[in-house]
Each structure stands twice: as C-alpha cells, then as structure tokens.
Amino acid sequence: MTVTLGINGFGRIGRSTLAHIAESARNDVQVVKINATGPIETNAHLLRYDSVHGRFSGQVTVNDNTLDLGRGAMQVMSSYRPEDLDWSGCDVVLECTGKFNDGKKSSVHMQQGAKSVLISAPAKNVDKTIV
C-alpha cells in the first residue's frame, strides 16, 4: 500500500524531506501535493541546489503548477491560509511551516481533506509526541 503525502511548508525541512523521499528506493511513499509560498521556479531551484546538503541528484521539472522529480507530478499550491488548501488525496500532511505547531491549529489540514497530520516541530495539544 502506498502512503500519499502532502507537504505544507517548503523551507529547509519540507525540501529536505522531499529530496530524501525522491532519492530513496522506497516506492511505498508518494508526495502528491506541496504548499509552498513563492514562485515555483524559485522553490525548484532551492531544491536543486541546497547549500547544506548539496545538489539534488535527480531531475527537477516544473510545469505550470506541478513539480516532477521523476516519480509523478506533484501539485504545488501557494497559500498562507491552510483553510484555502485542498489536501484531498493525502493520507498524511507533513506540517513543516513551524506556524501550526498546535493540535487545534494543525487539525485544519484534516478539515481540508488530509487523513492525518505529522508536525515537524515541537507541538502542544497533540495526540502523541515522538522524539
């Protein structure tokens, strides 16, 4: 069974998570949606050329509002408001902005179609904390 992911926030954590998934041999995890503010071309460039982790080893293709790393096109959205996002089709949303680090705040992703949310920062009022 393939787990479908959405990534909310395409900074250091969101980009490095996507790069790791794309460069891995895993075929049971697929990123299908990304919420990244800023131009898609800029975000693609930042993914290709990471100043800490080095150059991304795969192909990065931008087409309108999609990003493709050779494992299928991912829809790229751009909104600061999680209630404007459509996470339908995502089993898990990775909350990587650092802004929605509370169970109630991050639950809006589930209201927008995600089945669950994994917060990448220390969080309050959540079901479980994993260190």
Walk me through this protein's architecture:
The chain has 131 residues and is an alpha/beta fold. The protein has one domain: NAD(P)-binding Rossmann-like Domain (Rossmann fold). Helices cover 22% and strands 27% of the residues. It contains 4 helices and 9 strands. Strands 5-6-7-2-1-8-9 form a 7-stranded mixed beta sheet, with helices on one face. Strands 3-4 form a two-stranded antiparallel ribbon. A hairpin with a 4-residue loop joins strand 6 and strand 7. The radius of gyration is 14 Å and the shape is globular.
Would you count the extended β strands for me? 9
Gyration radius (Cα, Å) is: 14 Å
Mean pLDDT: 92
Helicity, in percent?
10-25%
CATH class: Alpha Beta
The total count of helices amounts to: 4
Q: Which sheet architecture does the biggest sheet show?
A: 7 strands, mixed
What order do the strands of the largest sheet run in, or round the barrel if closed? 5-6-7-2-1-8-9
Features:
9 strands; about 25% strand; two-stranded antiparallel ribbon; Rossmann fold; about 130 residues
What is the topological layout?
Elements: E1 3-8, H1 12-23, E2 29-35, H2 40-48, E3 49-50, E4 54-55, E5 61-63, E6 66-68, E7 73-77, E8 92-95, H3 103-106, H4 108-111, E9 116-119
Parallel strand pairs: 1-2, 1-8, 2-7, 8-9
Antiparallel strand pairs: 3-4, 5-6, 6-7
